[in-house]
TrEMBL record:
PANTHER family: ROD SHAPE-DETERMINING PROTEIN MRED (PTHR37484). It is a multi-pass membrane protein. Belongs to the MreD family. It comes from Dyella halodurans. Pfam families: MreD. The chain crosses the membrane at residues 7-28, 53-73, 94-111, 131-151. This is Rod shape-determining protein MreD. Keywords: Cell inner membrane, Cell membrane, Cell shape, Membrane, Transmembrane, Transmembrane helix. Its main location: membrane. It is found in: Cell inner membrane; Cell membrane. InterPro entries: Cell_shape_determining_MreD (IPR007227), MreD_proteobac (IPR026034). Involved in formation of the rod shape of the cell. May also contribute to regulation of formation of penicillin-binding proteins. The keyword Protein biosynthesis does not apply.
Length: 161
Protein backbone atom coordinates (compact mmCIF):
# COMPACT_ATOMS: atom_id res chain seq x y z
CA UNK A 1 0.00 0.00 0.00
CA UNK A 2 1.24 3.43 -0.76
CA UNK A 3 1.66 6.16 1.83
CA UNK A 4 -1.34 8.26 0.77
CA UNK A 5 -3.71 5.33 0.98
CA UNK A 6 -2.50 4.46 4.49
CA UNK A 7 -2.94 8.11 5.52
CA UNK A 8 -6.48 8.16 4.16
CA UNK A 9 -7.37 4.82 5.77
CA UNK A 10 -6.10 6.02 9.15
CA UNK A 11 -8.04 9.27 8.88
CA UNK A 12 -11.30 7.60 7.80
CA UNK A 13 -10.79 4.76 10.27
CA UNK A 14 -10.54 7.10 13.23
CA UNK A 15 -13.72 8.92 12.19
CA UNK A 16 -15.59 5.63 11.74
CA UNK A 17 -14.31 4.53 15.14
CA UNK A 18 -15.69 7.77 16.62
CA UNK A 19 -19.10 7.10 15.09
CA UNK A 20 -19.15 3.51 16.31
CA UNK A 21 -17.97 4.57 19.78
CA UNK A 22 -20.91 6.93 19.94
CA UNK A 23 -23.26 3.94 19.60
CA UNK A 24 -21.87 1.90 22.48
CA UNK A 25 -24.64 1.63 25.06
CA UNK A 26 -23.89 2.38 28.69
CA UNK A 27 -25.97 1.61 31.76
CA UNK A 28 -28.42 4.37 32.64
CA UNK A 29 -26.39 5.73 35.60
CA UNK A 30 -23.27 6.04 33.40
CA UNK A 31 -25.02 7.54 30.36
CA UNK A 32 -24.35 11.19 31.38
CA UNK A 33 -20.61 10.43 31.47
CA UNK A 34 -20.45 9.37 27.82
CA UNK A 35 -18.32 11.85 25.83
CA UNK A 36 -19.25 13.05 22.38
CA UNK A 37 -16.66 11.07 20.44
CA UNK A 38 -17.20 12.50 16.93
CA UNK A 39 -16.57 16.00 18.28
CA UNK A 40 -13.35 14.95 20.00
CA UNK A 41 -11.95 13.19 16.94
CA UNK A 42 -12.96 16.00 14.59
CA UNK A 43 -11.31 18.47 16.95
CA UNK A 44 -8.11 16.44 16.89
CA UNK A 45 -8.04 16.24 13.10
CA UNK A 46 -8.96 19.90 12.65
CA UNK A 47 -6.00 20.87 14.83
CA UNK A 48 -3.53 18.44 13.32
CA UNK A 49 -4.59 18.25 9.69
CA UNK A 50 -6.65 21.26 8.68
CA UNK A 51 -6.32 20.48 4.98
CA UNK A 52 -8.45 17.36 5.42
CA UNK A 53 -11.11 18.69 7.75
CA UNK A 54 -13.63 21.24 6.52
CA UNK A 55 -17.24 22.14 7.17
CA UNK A 56 -18.46 19.74 4.49
CA UNK A 57 -16.79 16.80 6.19
CA UNK A 58 -18.16 17.90 9.58
CA UNK A 59 -21.64 18.11 8.06
CA UNK A 60 -21.36 14.61 6.51
CA UNK A 61 -20.06 13.10 9.76
CA UNK A 62 -22.89 14.84 11.59
CA UNK A 63 -25.50 13.48 9.19
CA UNK A 64 -24.08 9.97 9.60
CA UNK A 65 -24.20 10.42 13.37
CA UNK A 66 -27.80 11.64 13.12
CA UNK A 67 -28.80 8.60 11.09
CA UNK A 68 -26.98 6.19 13.39
CA UNK A 69 -28.26 7.79 16.59
CA UNK A 70 -31.83 8.29 15.39
CA UNK A 71 -32.12 11.94 16.41
CA UNK A 72 -33.50 14.94 14.55
CA UNK A 73 -31.84 14.99 11.12
CA UNK A 74 -29.28 17.77 10.95
CA UNK A 75 -28.96 18.25 14.71
CA UNK A 76 -25.48 16.79 15.10
CA UNK A 77 -24.48 18.06 11.66
CA UNK A 78 -25.13 21.64 12.73
CA UNK A 79 -23.34 21.13 16.04
CA UNK A 80 -20.26 19.58 14.44
CA UNK A 81 -20.14 22.31 11.77
CA UNK A 82 -20.14 24.99 14.48
CA UNK A 83 -17.46 23.13 16.43
CA UNK A 84 -15.19 22.61 13.42
CA UNK A 85 -15.69 26.19 12.25
CA UNK A 86 -14.52 27.56 15.60
CA UNK A 87 -11.65 25.07 15.80
CA UNK A 88 -10.43 25.91 12.29
CA UNK A 89 -10.83 29.65 12.91
CA UNK A 90 -8.60 29.52 16.00
CA UNK A 91 -6.41 26.61 14.87
CA UNK A 92 -3.18 28.57 14.75
CA UNK A 93 -3.61 29.60 18.38
CA UNK A 94 -5.01 26.33 19.75
CA UNK A 95 -2.20 24.20 18.33
CA UNK A 96 0.45 25.98 20.32
CA UNK A 97 -1.38 26.22 23.63
CA UNK A 98 0.02 24.16 26.49
CA UNK A 99 -2.06 21.06 27.08
CA UNK A 100 -3.93 22.50 30.07
CA UNK A 101 -5.02 25.54 28.04
CA UNK A 102 -5.94 23.35 25.10
CA UNK A 103 -8.05 21.25 27.45
CA UNK A 104 -9.86 24.35 28.68
CA UNK A 105 -10.47 25.42 25.07
CA UNK A 106 -11.86 21.96 24.29
CA UNK A 107 -14.10 22.24 27.34
CA UNK A 108 -15.39 25.60 26.08
CA UNK A 109 -16.06 24.10 22.63
CA UNK A 110 -17.88 21.10 24.12
CA UNK A 111 -19.96 23.35 26.38
CA UNK A 112 -20.83 25.46 23.33
CA UNK A 113 -21.89 22.22 21.63
CA UNK A 114 -24.18 21.39 24.57
CA UNK A 115 -25.72 24.87 24.49
CA UNK A 116 -26.47 24.46 20.77
CA UNK A 117 -28.02 21.06 21.48
CA UNK A 118 -30.13 22.56 24.25
CA UNK A 119 -31.38 25.31 21.92
CA UNK A 120 -32.27 22.84 19.15
CA UNK A 121 -34.06 20.47 21.50
CA UNK A 122 -35.92 23.32 23.20
CA UNK A 123 -37.20 24.52 19.82
CA UNK A 124 -38.17 20.93 19.02
CA UNK A 125 -40.43 20.98 22.08
CA UNK A 126 -38.50 18.71 24.41
CA UNK A 127 -38.34 19.29 28.15
CA UNK A 128 -35.23 20.71 29.78
CA UNK A 129 -32.62 18.03 30.52
CA UNK A 130 -31.54 17.15 34.06
CA UNK A 131 -28.44 18.70 35.60
CA UNK A 132 -26.41 15.51 34.96
CA UNK A 133 -26.75 16.22 31.24
CA UNK A 134 -23.97 18.81 31.58
CA UNK A 135 -21.38 16.26 32.81
CA UNK A 136 -20.47 14.96 29.34
CA UNK A 137 -18.44 18.03 28.20
CA UNK A 138 -16.32 17.82 31.35
CA UNK A 139 -15.65 14.11 30.75
CA UNK A 140 -14.70 14.88 27.13
CA UNK A 141 -12.35 17.63 28.25
CA UNK A 142 -10.79 15.31 30.85
CA UNK A 143 -10.20 12.69 28.13
CA UNK A 144 -8.79 15.22 25.65
CA UNK A 145 -5.12 15.11 26.78
CA UNK A 146 -5.09 11.31 26.67
CA UNK A 147 -6.84 11.16 23.30
CA UNK A 148 -4.54 13.82 21.86
CA UNK A 149 -1.35 12.12 23.05
CA UNK A 150 -2.56 8.67 21.94
CA UNK A 151 -3.58 9.85 18.48
CA UNK A 152 -0.42 11.92 18.08
CA UNK A 153 1.77 9.00 19.12
CA UNK A 154 0.02 6.58 16.74
CA UNK A 155 0.20 9.12 13.92
CA UNK A 156 3.95 9.60 14.49
CA UNK A 157 4.64 5.86 14.75
CA UNK A 158 2.82 5.24 11.48
CA UNK A 159 4.50 8.34 9.98
CA UNK A 160 1.16 9.76 8.88
CA UNK A 161 1.00 13.36 7.73
Amino acid sequence: MNKQRINLLWFVGTLVFALVSMLIPLPAPLQPFKPYWPALFLLYWSLESADRVNLGLAFCIGLCADLLDGVLLGEQAMRLCALVFIALRFRSRLRFFPMWQQTLAVLALLLNDRILLLIVRTFAGEALPPATWWISPFVGAALWPFLFVLMDDLRMRMRIQ
